[in-house]
Amino acid sequence: MDLVKLEHSVDPSYRQRAGHMFHDNTLGQLKRILNKFGRPLWTPGIAVGEPSTINGYQYSINQAMPQIAPSATTMAFGAARSCVRSGGGRAFSCLHSTKK
């Protein structure tokens, strides 16, 4: 998982409002990863109302996203503001610039 490459695959004008989206089990794995300086990628929100972040970006949990597995697209990143999830299936679509 190369988060920096994923983040920089999105146009800089969208990155300011961007965030990650992934399955809750993926979050559990990300909480265990340290960067090259020994600091965790996951940072809890310290102030009231301040969100927790991954690599400095907010994230959202989507249980319809695939879990970590070989060749699976397990994360999405972008400035998705309008999202629609199909009721019974796994269909999920967002408007704006989002990379997987």
How does this model look, in words?
- The protein is α+β, with helices and mostly antiparallel strands.
- It has one domain (3-99).
- The protein contains three helices and eight strands; from the N terminus they run ααβαβββββββ.
- The strands form two sheets. Strands 2-3-4-1-5-8 form a six-stranded mixed sheet.
- The protein is globular.
Write the layout of secondary structure elements.
Elements: H1 3-7, H2 12-15, E1 19-22, H3 24-30, E2 42-43, E3 53-54, E4 57-61, E5 75-78, E6 83-85, E7 92-94, E8 98-99
Parallel strand pairs: 1-4
Antiparallel strand pairs: 1-5, 2-3, 3-4, 5-8, 6-7
Q: Quote the beta fraction.
A: 25-35%
Q: Helix fraction?
A: 10-25%
Give the strand line-up of the largest sheet: 2-3-4-1-5-8
Number of helices: 3
Largest sheet properties: 6 strands, mixed
Structurally, the number of domains stands at 1
Q: What's the β-strand tally?
A: 8
Radius of gyration based on Cα positions: 14 Å
Shape: globular
What is the structural class?
A: alpha+beta
Indicate the low-confidence ranges by residue numbers: none
- In angstroms, what separates the terminal alpha carbons? 11 Å
Query: What is the chain-wise order of helices and strands?
Result: HHEHEEEEEEE
Overall pLDDT score: 82
